[in-house]
Description:
The protein is mainly alpha-helical. Helix content is about 65%, strand content about 0%. A 3-stranded antiparallel β-sheet has the order 1-2-3, with no helix packed on it.
Amino acid sequence: MYVLRCFRFFNFNYITLINEQHRVLESRLAPVSREITDNRARTREELESVYRKIVSYVLLRSGLGSPTDIKVIREATAALQSVFPQTELAAFLSLSKKEKERQLKELTMIVTGIRLFNKDCGKGGEGIDELPAILSEAIPAATHHIDIELHASQELAYQYTALIEMMHHSQNAELELKLTMLKEVLYNVRQHEAFLCVILSDVITCAQEVDMMDKQFAAQMEELKNIVRAKTAVPTSLVYPIFIELSNLWTSFQDEILVLSFLNNLTISLQQFLGSHTLIFPEDIMESLLEDIIVKTDEDRLKESADSKVNPADFSKEEWLFPEFTINFSQLLIQYHGFCPYSFAVKDGLLLPGNPSLGVLKHKEKYYAFNSVEAAYTFAKNPDKYIKMIGDKAKETSIDINILILK
Length: 407
């Protein structure tokens, strides 16, 4: 099914995505940089041409406005002249190529910081997008969209699980065929749910990063205002580091925009997945199959076992962990994405959510949760036996154990 082909994205490191974007930017800037660093300008006209190229370089690297917008160019030129007047250009061109490249990057950050400061003071900011505001709107919109998709995926999973439980003991050949198909789509929809949970978690992480950067940006801006307030001249040693920090934070905002866009596109690419399920089990067929069947949510199943708990005294070797006695209990990496391994092993691949509050079994440095005390006790008598059964069962089906342990 479609969703299985998306697994490669979830081994993805977003630092790789950001680094690749930065590499692309460097490759695009390389010709402009060479035109500056290899230049042998001597005449006034030639020097003015190089200076204009530096302004273009600064705008291209910073991403703050179009390098063809005259208002943006004027603002960037004024900011550059305040820290790097054209009279210093000849000395700059006499430097080594490596030093010129370093100074170009530093000038970009300083000019970026100046323009961001001026924008905050209401004295500039032409062509500069309100990235923090854009992110503050885009992140809730992204989480809302994912929540809708996740809810739809979970509803299908609950329905498929209810049908599988009903058909499990049937000897009817037609129902047996449907049972096989239902298990396949259940595995698939649970994988889809796992993907969406990963995306949602990453969007939440993005929100946390943006919130932290917002505070840092505001603090740096306030510090800068305090330094320059009512002063006609300020030592560059005080303000340049802050300009550079503002620039770095703005680059981080740009990076978060990139990551969020990637996550949104990934979510959209998964949308067609749910549509494929209606082709396998159309709505009218699902309605007829579900008639008189109680569909339980994962929460319903957890409530059913809420008052039960494993008694660790019943076990001499196995270690059990409980939320009230275990630090960072919620951070435990439960195997099989939290599904009950016993149910999967002995109920022909049925996926039922485990309830960690019953007690989490620690076996060979891995953790397992169960949907009932009975399942926990039976599994704990011979964990390796059931783990092998799970591996064998996974080979017979479309389910990918790696996907089921995504967190």
